[in-house]
Amino acid sequence: MKKINYTHEEIMESTPRTGFFGHPKGLSTLFFTEFWERFSYYGMKAILIYYLYYSVAEGGFGLNQAVAMQIVAIYGTLIYMSGVIGGWIADRITGTQNAVFYGGFLIMIGHILLSLPNNLTLVMVALAVIIAGTGLLKPNISTTVGELYDRNDVRRDAAFTLFYMGINLGSLTAPLLTGYLQTRISFHAGFLAAAIGMFCGLVVYAIKRKKNLGLAGRNVPNPLTKPELKKFGLISGGIILLFLIYLLILQLNNALTLENFSFLITILGIVLPIYIFINMIASKDVTKDERSRVYSYIPLYITSVAFWMIQEQGSTILATFADKKTQLEMSVLTNGLIDFSIPSAWAQSLNPIFIVVLAPIFATLWMKLGKHNPPTVYKFAIGVIVAGLSYLVMIIPLATGVELINPLWLVLSFLLITIGELCISPVGLSTTTKLAPVTFTARMMSLWMLSNATAQGLNAQLVVVYTKINQSDYFMYSGLFAVVIGILLLIISPKVKRAMKGVY
Fold first, then answer.
1. Are residues 183 and 292 in the same domain?
2. pTM
3. Is there a single domain that holds both residue 310 and residue 458?
4. Number of domain units in the chain
5. 211 and 310 inside one domain
6. Mean residue pLDDT across the chain
7. Do 207 and 52 touch, CB atoms closer than 8 A?
8. What is residue 186's three-state secondary structure?
9. Helix/strand/coil (H/E/C) assignment for every residue in 188-257
10. Domain boundaries, position 241
């Protein structure tokens, strides 16, 4: 495979340097592509769980709630795992620009399949196609944004801020539309809206990328050689064969169940990051200080997992809670003043709404604090403790014994988890790049993505627990677990800070 290695100067000369709020025009192309991709992703995910457990009469498949939540958790796990593979494909085969296009096309196909009258098998195929597409698009579109700027370009941070805004605008608006369509027309109408969203993103990207992106994302810096291609084929074939043998053994023992498959995914979500950590620590290419920083990242990784375990339950446990345990009839809430039924999927828009409102406040706060700005380890601890509180507050309305709680409690829970997210998510991205060994920068970023995958892999087991124990107990134990993780991080924070070797 031919190496494509355009120089940075060639890439800069090939792209219009202004045209989008003082930024390169290519940013607008990537902004709108990501907006529509996130629109399709969150629009579909907002109604997916209801599609699985609603009765056939209501347009769903009538699955057990625990099974439905497991499927959604496994889907989320594989989404984040696929990003590691997608980044590798871009580096070794396609380049990031082409990977984004192929990924977007697969995502659109997946949503189209969901929009058609189908059976459960076709739904699983559709989700697999979306997973593959998201793995190609999600990690590589952000990389392409970075290629539009010089390393020291003062516009660079602002560019990612604008890009992040596109993500949240897409995730904010999508559940509002798909949730409304699902309740007023059908699930398939909601899925079709998600498909149309991705189609719009693809059209924008296809029309504008040659002119606005130029050579950005065209590099294939480390292409597969013929011997490597052969080795890759053998390894991939071996892995697939082992997986098929595993499935056959389960089938022969009448054990080919969702529970066993979810357990496999959970184990994979735990083993994979452990392997990456060991690989980096043992590498001869890692210096003594870099190795120390990798060690310091381990407690941050565990804290991140604890945080994402709660945050990602917004689309499973809290989504179900919004549907089954929350008063959504405005006529009841307003004593007949307003006659409107709130779609339960609208709860999924609460997090991005709070992100859009609070992100500028937090960014300003960190700047204003200056030298008093808390170090990374403290921000992580605060973030996971606040996340724990978002579950602990749910005990209060449940203790009243009312059948349906006021939706403001759900709003409060999402507000707290968002505050925690703003302490961890953007800080984590920055810290990951700072602590990464020079030779393992990309692999360290894959670890950050895997913290979410590990969390959702564990959630695949926890959602079953949620259906079997008292809801108050579940919220209490989950919340306390997160709080304890945060307190433990605070206790060991002096050692973590020393191990970070000057990175704060």
1. no
2. 0.84
3. yes
4. 3
5. no
6. 84
7. no
8. coil
9. HHHHHHHHHHHHHHHHHHHHHHHHHHCCCCCCECCCCCHHHHHHHHHHHHHHHHHHHHHHHHHHHCCCCC
10. 228-252
